[in-house]
Amino acid sequence: MTANYKILAGYPEVFKAIAGISVSEFDALVAEIAPAHAAAELLRKARVDRRNKTGGGAPPRLSLADGVLVSLIGVRFGARTALELIFGVGRSTIPRAMGRLKPILLNSSAAVLLKTPLTVPERQERLLMASQQLPNRGGFLRTLSCSCGIWIESDGRVEPCSYVIRNTYCYSERVAPALHK
């Protein structure tokens, strides 16, 4: 299951646990940074050394809301590679989105969230709580939790997880046992 803002906004407790702010605060943040983001995009697209003409190239894979969400989760959980799989995007999309949005977010009301990453126990506690709120125990949360050192079973049990992330695929010993021999 891939995730995005629209899906996660349907689960307010989960959203707050992983993003650090409520859905309404997040919506206000996106509205706050939208003008600065639009201005930065105009400047980026008007560069003379740009490879593609304005309007050329592939359309963005992440909306502004998804990019902000990726930036918040990536900084707070330190799981950039897992986010590629969770959001269903290519390997360069996450760092590109974070690189473009982080300077804008640091000048916004979200600056505190970006300057205080979660500790490993805090990450694990928030992921466990979030997984208990989702009806299917959150497949995408398993990928994120595996990158934080735990594996959340479908019945709610938590076990340590060794993981390997290669080519944007997260393999756990329960998903790909051959890798852990």
Q: Can you tell me the overall shape? A: globular
Global structural class:
mainly alpha
Order of strands side by side in the largest beta sheet? 1-2
Could you state the oligomeric state of the chains shown?
A: single chain
Number of helices: 9
Describe this structure in words.
This protein is mostly helical and 181 residues long. The protein has two domains: 5-51 and 62-115; 120-180, no CATH class. It has nine helices and four strands. The chain has a two-stranded antiparallel ribbon. The protein has a two-stranded antiparallel sheet with strand order 3-4. Strand 1 (150-152) and strand 2 form a beta hairpin. Helix 2 (12-19) packs antiparallel against helix 8 (120-133) and helix 3 (23-45) packs across helix 6 (93-106). It is globular and about 55 Å long. Mean pLDDT is 76; it is low at 164-181.
Name the features.
globular; 181 residues; mainly alpha; single chain; 9 helices; two-stranded antiparallel ribbon
Provide the fold topology.
Blueprint: H1 5-9, H2 12-19, H3 23-45, H4 64-77, H5 80-87, H6 93-106, H7 111-115, H8 120-133, H9 139-147, E1 150-152, E2 158-160, E3 163-166, E4 169-172
Antiparallel strand pairs: 1-2, 3-4
